[in-house]
Specification:
Blueprint: H1 2-5, E1 15-17, E2 20-21, E3 26-32, E4 34-39, E5 42-47, E6 50-55, E7 60-63, E8 69-75, E9 78-83, E10 90-95, E11 101-104, E12 121-123, E13 126-133, E14 142-149, E15 154-159, E16 169-171, E17 174-178, E18 188-194, E19 200-214, E20 217-223, E21 227-233, E22 239-243, E23 247-254, E24 257-264, E25 267-274, E26 279-282, E27 289-295, E28 298-303, E29 310-315, E30 323-324, E31 327-329, E32 333-335, E33 338-344, E34 347-348, E35 353-357, E36 363-365, E37 369-374, E38 378-387, E39 392-404
Parallel strand pairs: 1-22, 2-26, 32-39
Antiparallel strand pairs: 3-29, 4-5, 5-6, 6-7, 8-9, 9-10, 10-11, 12-13, 13-14, 14-15, 16-17, 17-18, 18-19, 19-20, 20-21, 21-22, 23-24, 24-25, 25-26, 27-28, 28-29, 30-34, 31-33, 33-37, 35-36, 35-38, 38-39
């Protein structure tokens, strides 16, 4: 994939190396699931084929009546997702206020084999997505971009070409997408469609994989001797980029804030860059975070820190809450050598740092769960210290583990 990129002429983007600073806010686990999206006080995600609608104010999690569902998006009082519960995939639109559903059945594909397909986006009464046209010849596969107006019930084909790795996005009367021009489907220039005028324009000729839009700003994921996120100003035609100590994917934008997934040293975390202050911060700290989405002061993402997929939210404006340390052990006694799995069960504020002391001179840092083997007989006192931006807390259990011959 990278070899092809060197053959594509790229417009020069000045990359400034920016360091990552610490951030004070509050992280909260919302539930188990995948592919979160956020708008206002509502968060949606998929889990085991169902769609969950979470109200941040009331802390209520509503499972919508759906099956074989994925790729949810939310805007206003409407939720849209891809539903494969029938032989033919549909886009399902759910009205939160009335509880009514509406199906889009034409030009919709599920495409589980090639990572994308009908990943919808919604703004007001307009839904955009791309369908997948399969072909045994990879160069002849295509991703057609469509728009559906829920007010007029009219569907419009916008482009013959989408992108394997990305999905279209929409803000007000602008729709943007990566157009691969039918070459291989993995990336290409960014195009924009104006709903009011019907005009279609190539915005950036640089090779991109994914994009998102808010107001006059278009954020995209590019490759120039490494992956990075760039911001294009539609009003001034200026392009800016910042190189961070990670490779950047899955960008999203809200006002002056850009979020993305950064990969570095086999870890994946969520980062944010504030264009108004030129400050960059790391939002997650566990090395297993994906699919960020931002609205206002809140960022949501999918996290695998406990070896299952959970949805977390970080509130930039919330005051951090001190964690209260607690943990469990899968066994507490046995013959030497005894291997024990310790699991963090701390309550209160979500920890961002863990320190285990197993009582035998061995310590473990940064791991939310820890596996340790006790090789000598005796009783061991085990302690766990958990820390976040608010404070630290330690739990010490005397005689926690007993090892016999």
């Amino acid at each position: 994939m990278k070899s092809r990129l060197f053959l594509i002429p790229l417009a020069f983007v000045s990359l400034i190396l920016i360091s990552i600073t610490a951030l004070a806010g509050q992280e909260t686990r919302l539930g188990a699931g995948h592919e979160p999206d956020i708008y206002g006080d509502r968060v949606v995600w998929s889990s085991n084929g169902s769609i969950h609608l979470f109200d941040i104010n009331s802390r209520t999690d509503t499972e919508l009546n759906s099956s074989s569902a994925s790729h949810p998006a939310v805007h206003g009082d409407k939720v849209v997702w891809l539903d494969n519960s029938t032989e033919n995939p549909n886009l399902c639109i759910y009205n939160i206020s009335t509880g009514e559903k509406f199906l889009i059945t034409e030009n919709v594909t599920g495409d589980s084999n090639y990572r994308t397909g009908s990943k919808p986006a919604i703004y007001g009464n307009i839904i955009v997505w791309q369908n997948f046209v399969d072909n045994e010849n990879q160069d002849q596969r295509a991703y057609n971009v469509y728009m559906y107006n829920l007010s007029s019930l009219i569907q419009t084909k916008i482009s013959n070409y989408g992108c394997l790795y990305g999905r279209p996005d929409i803000y007000e009367d602008r729709i943007v997408w990566v157009n691969d021009s039918g070459v291989s489907g993995d990336g290409g220039p960014i195009w924009m469609y104006n709903i009011s005028t019907g005009n279609k324009t190539e915005i950036e000729a640089d090779y991109s994989y994914d994009c998102a839009i808010y107001g006059d700003r278009l954020v995209s994921n590019k490759y120039t001797f490494g992956y990075f996120v760039s911001v294009y100003n539609l009003s001034t035609n200026e392009v800016s980029g910042a190189k961070f100590p990670s490779e950047e994917f899955d960008p999203d934008i809200y006002m002056d804030r850009v979020v993305w997934r950064g990969e570095s040293n086999c870890t994946s975390n969520i980062y944010m860059y504030d264009m108004s202050t030129a400050n960059a911060t790391r939002i997650s700290a566990n090395g297993s975070a994906y699919d960020p989405s931002i609205y206002g002061d809140r960022i949501v993402w999918e996290d695998m820190r406990t070896n299952q997929s959970d949805i977390y939210m970080y509130d930039l404006s919330a005051k951090p809450i001190k964690p209260k340390a607690s943990f469990t052990a899968n066994v507490t006694s046995g013959k030497s050598p005894l291997t024990v799995l310790f699991t963090d069960t701390s309550t209160g504020g979500t920890p961002t740092y863990w320190h285990w002391d197993f009582g035998d001179g061995i310590h473990s840092k940064h791991a939310q769960t820890a596996t340790h083997t006790f090789r000598k007989t005796g009783e061991y006192t085990v302690s766990l210290t958990v820390t976040n931006a608010a404070e630290s807390d330690t739990l010490t259990v005397k005689g926690c583990i007993g090892v016999s011959e």
